[in-house]
Each structure stands twice: as C-alpha cells, then as structure tokens.
Amino acid sequence: MEGKLRSVGIHQASGWVEAVLDKLVFTNIPPGMPSDTADNTVLYVGEQIVLDKLRRKHGEIPQKYTPLSGDQVVIQPTSSMGLGVFAKRNFEPGDLVVCERPLLVIAADIYSDPSLAARGLNTNYLINLRQLGTILKSANSHFLRANRDAFADLSKDYALDPVADILIKDHFPELYILSCNGFKTRNDSQMFGVYKDYRVVPRVASRINHSCSPNAIYYFDEATFTFNVVATRKIEASSEISLMYCALEVPRVHRHDSLRCYNIDPCRCVACETSDKEGSDRRRKMIKDIQSDTALVERLADLSLAELLRIQQAVEEEGLHYLAVYPWCCN
Ligand SMILES: C[S@@+](CC[C@H](N)C(=O)[O-])C[C@H]1O[C@@H](n2cnc3c(N)ncnc32)[C@H](O)[C@@H]1O
Q1: What is the SS3 assignment for 179?
Q2: DSSP code of 91?
Q3: Pocket probe mutation, ligand 1, options 76, 78, 81, 180, max atoms within 8 Å of Cβ
Q4: Is the CB of 210 inside a 6 Å radius of any atom of ligand 1?
Q5: Which of 129, 270, 312, 320 yields a CA-CA distance of 20 to 30 A from 144?
Q6: Which CATH superfamily is domain 2-243 in?
Q7: For 321, how many CA atoms within 13 A lie in the half-sphere containing its CB?
Q8: What is the DSSP string of 265-294?
Q9: Which residues are registered as beta bridge partners of 216?
Q10: Where's the SET domain (predicted)?
Q11: Residue 7: what are its φ and ψ, rounded to 5°?
Q12: Using omega within 30 degrees of 0 as the cis cutoff, is the peptide bond preceding 77 cis?
C-alpha cells in the first residue's frame, strides 16, 4: 500500500509542481532593506495578486509598527506543557501582550487551486499533504537563516492522521510545524485570492499554550503584517499567557476530542485540572444556547438584572471573557 501511494504521489506531484509551485511568490516582507533583521521579516508564500491587493488597500505593505519593549513576556518551561509564554508585568483587558512579525504567512489550502482540480491533480488527501509539504520545503530555503532555525525549532507535536503520520512525518516535518503552530487569519481577512485558508506562524506566540479558559485572543494585522495577542482579562506578572486552540462553548469531552490532534491528551490547562466538570459543562451549554439564540441576544437589554448577572457570572467562572456576550451583560 505504501509503495502504491508513493508512486501515485510522485507522479501527481510532478504535474502539480508545474501547475502551481511556479506561480507562487516567496517574498521576505519587508524585502531586503539593509536595516531589516530576521525578526522583522515575514516569509509570505502565496499569490502575487494578494500582495497587489494589499498594496492597493494599504498603500505600501508592510506599514510601520511599533514593536513592544522586551519586558512584556518571556518564554519559559512549564511544568507539563513544554515551553510556554509568561507575563513579565501586569496586563489589563485590552492590553497588547505580543506584537510581532511572524515567521511565515502561507496559504495552507494551496492544493485547492482550481487549476489543479481541472487537471485532476488534487484528488487525494495524502497527495494534497505532500503538495503542501513540498511547498513548505521550498519555503524553508527562502527563509532568512535565523528564521529558518527558529521555524525548525518549533513544536511538531501534532497528529495529522495515522497513515499520513507513518508515511509523511519523517519526510515533511515542516507540515507538522505548520499544523501545530499555524493560526488562521480571520475569516474576514482581505488577503484572499484563489486560496482561503491563510495560516500565520508566529515566532513568540507559537509558544503560547492552549487553555479552555484563555486569558488572551489573537489577530493578524495585514497592514503591518504583525501577529498580535491581546489580553481579554487581567493577567498578573509571572502568570502564563494562554490562547484557545478549539471552540470552548462545548462540553469538556468535545474540547478534548478537538485537542487530540495537538497531542493534548489530557488537557493540562487550569480549567480542566481544577473546575467541576458537570457545573462547567452546564454553564458552557447555557452560554452557547444564549449565543446561538439571535432573538435572545437582541433582547439582552430587556433581560432582568438577575438574568444578566447569571450570564456574566457564568462567563467569568468559565473564563470566556472574549465572548461578545460578555460586555453586553456588563453594560
Ligand atoms: C503551539 S505549541 C505550544 C508551545 C509548546 N508548549 C512548545 O513547547 O513549543 C502546542 C503544543 O504545546 C503543548 N500544549 C499546549 N497546550 C497544552 C495543554 N493545554 N495541555 C497539554 N499540552 C499542551 C502540546 O504539546 C501542543 O502540541
């Protein structure tokens, strides 16, 4: 079986290289100013039309940004989750915790290119993975040296699927780095060209672990090409910064199912290690029901103070302060 897949893969991949790889741009942004250090440079892999679109929209890209001073966060070992990112000072809700040029921005669904479909080249999950792996190998050779080393050093703790893990992992470690550390750009991003699924691999924020009660959210700013992490609640100096890797308004067992691909089994976050399971599941279900009930969301202003307080308390107990429903209840 392995031999058959391999030979199909090689045949398909060579047609694919002509069809797609040649039309991708690999651009270090900002492009090669003498003053640019590697940590101010993003390798963008995607289509030229996307770059042109961003230039039209923002004037020039990347626009200047103000890097945060070095006394915000520090990367340190955790007790049970490998490395983590810790606050070096107190943060208030809304404070910028990390603002950095990421290592890589890449269209991760390159195999969905319509020109491949027309030529019957994107037919098989494993072949698609090999195609993306081939692109990532090319990306590797375009990194500035320091960024290549930083990328290679990131966690590969990810399971794609049992067959792929046996056939591909040793050949395409970059695929696992992307899967483990790649954050989706937001759905309303203007970056879209042919591809829809842009991933951003940050250098510092890749070390941020998952929590089911996260204290921060992230966004990618395409004008400055920066990856930003913002506190959603108070974070005290020396506590760990956390993000969410999966939907959180679902029962713990569903969260754990979604986290298994990150080899997070069990989840070591404070919420899972300490909270009462049934009570937590009940509160999250209540929050989910409210969120999905658009009529109720529109009527929030009409709810009694007691009802609003109940929602507010549930959100706070579960640490889901980032949800849109939270400020509505507090106001
Ligand atoms: C994006 S990396 C985060 C940084 C990572 N700890 C490191 O040392 O590079 C994701 C990996 O961190 C670990 N991890 C993150 N959150 C975790 C959690 N809540 N429980 C257990 N392990 C976690 C898992 O190994 C996961 O695959």
Answers
A1: helix
A2: B
A3: 81
A4: yes
A5: 129
A6: SET domain (2.170.270.10)
A7: 21
A8: SS--SHHHHHS-HHHHHHHHHHHHHHHH-H
A9: 231
A10: 69-246
A11: -70, -40
A12: no
